[in-house]
Amino acid sequence: MTDFAGWLMPLRYGSETAEHNAVRRGAGLFDLSHMGELLIAGDGAGAALDYALVGEASAIQPGRARYTMICAPDGGVIDDLIVYRLAGGAYLVVANASNAATVAAELTERADGRGATVTDRTADYALIAIQGPRSAGILAGLTDTDLSQVRYYASYPAKVGGHEALLARTGYTGEDGFELFVRPQDAVSVWQELTDAGHADGLVPAGLAARDSLRLEAGMPLYGNELGRDVTPFDAGLGRVVKLDKPGDFVGRAALAERAKAPAERRLVGLVGKSRRVPRHGYSVLWEGEPCGTVTSGAPSPTLGRPIAMAYVSVGAAAEAGSAAGADDDRLAVDIRGTAEPAEMVPLPFYKRSAGN
Amino acid sequence: MSVPEELYYTAEHEWVAISDATARVGITDYAQRALGDVVYVTAPSPGARVTAGDPCGEVESTKSVSDIYCPADGEVTEVNPEIDEDPGLVNSDPYGAGWLFKIKLDSGDQVPPGLLSAAEYNALTAEQE
Fold first, then answer.
1. Per-residue pLDDT tens for A287-314?
2. Does A206 touch chain B (CB under 8 A)?
3. Which of A34, A188, A269, B50 would suit a FRET pair with A116, their CA atoms being 20 to 30 Å apart?
């Protein structure tokens, strides 16, 4: 168990590699109750969020969700979020545990005078995720909702094992899966029911270590590594979340509009190690022996069988390294504790689930 | 948690098996559990002179890297050839197939100074938990 943003959480239940593989091949169960949930309600909720966030929340259809970000006036990322538009017209904003209080404070301030209320509902939700190609099969037995009708990034009120839940087809693993928002008092029961239902399919509980290696393979950013106050969505290759075309002002608009036009100085790239030593957060990326960037996240990849990493690299080096020849070229490397270990640059994501899953 | 009686230990969680003036060295069950799945081991090279207390290699797991500290003065004679292919042996069999390297001891058949008994190592890890 480890302290994670003030919550006591398991790094792993057994072997993190086994948990990772279970999610890729069958299914894994995650306790994500540490995430922050903020409810934005009122006639002005959509407009308030359009102002507060870089995306156009008011354009989200009821029953759908969208990945977006909240930025500071200078365009720096305060958090990455998923916004769910609920059936009754309110919005549920899910924030990272480490940023929940900050996001709540910012949203409250930004919604002031805009006909919307912001309520921190974190304590009212437990969040359990089931992720992997077998998720739908396992969950189907516990709910009347026809999961084949639930599209990716859709969310519905549902009953799971007889308990009220908000069921969303979202996740952070790159696999098909569902995130279930339930009442805290029902969490243990829902967890147990899923565990029992999934036993025959090899469902295992999965901890933070597997969560990190799964999202890294899927090329998904982690706040604190790829995202932070010193990074704009554009730097992270996620300029698509910034809706400069939406009507009305929003926090960070001017700075982000500038940034959208300016030539980028660095790029977020994928690296695959040629040796088995793992590039880690903070390690220097080298091009022809010279530092050209920094690793943001790194881990062994159980799926690829090689170490993988994401790194911010200068655009010049990224362009040269991206066009360099294959396996024999050692000009791109990561300084791993004093030794330059060659790596190759690859497009993100490292892993994409196959179409049938 | 396994702490075989017949072995010696270091405060840095290595175990040492001594026979014929040679030490066989690995990391303990306590260490492999703390590390998680081992993905790579950098062992000292055969022929290298090693000094007790000096870092002489690394054990890398999914989430972290730990130095291996040399338990005794001597010369490295052999490195476990299985570990490169299957670093998971360190997790599944830390005192057996997961051994890391051997040292020809300067102290000969005598137990090198500074090592802990199983009881002392047990006491140490109990404190750390």
1. 999 999 999 999 999 999 999 999 999 9
2. no
3. A34
Tens digit of pLDDT for each residue in A111-165? 999 999 999 999 999 999 999 999 999 999 999 999 999 999 999 999 999 999 9
Q: Do A285 and A171 belong to one domain?
A: no
For the segment B32-67, what is each residue's pLDDT rounded down to a tens digit?
999 999 999 999 999 999 999 999 999 999 988 999
Chain B residue numbers touching A299 (CB-CB < 8 A): 62-63
ω before A221 within 30° of 0 (cis)? Answer: no
pLDDT for the residue numbered B109: 87
CATH of domain B8-128: 2.40.50.100
Domain housing A81: 37-105+232-262
Contact criterion met (CB below 8 Å) for A131 and A115: no
Query: In this complex, which of B36, B37, B40 lies closest to A276 when CB atoms are compared?
Result: B40
Q: What residues of A are in contact with residue B58 (Cβ under 8 Å)?
A: 337
Task: Check whether residue A204 and residue A270 sit in a common domain.
Answer: no
Q: Which two tokens stand for residue B81?
A: 């050839």
pLDDT tens digit sequence for B79-103? 999 999 999 999 999 999 999 999 9
Counting every residue, how long is chain A?
Answer: 357
Whether B65 has its CB under 8 Å from any CB of chain A: the answer is yes
Q: A1, A17, A214, A339: best mutation site toward chain B, by most B Cβ within 10 Å?
A: A17
Q: Do B63 and A276 touch (CB under 8 A)?
A: no
Q: Looking at the structure, do residues A345 and A304 belong to the same domain, yes or no?
A: yes
The residue ranges of every structural domain in chain B are 8-128
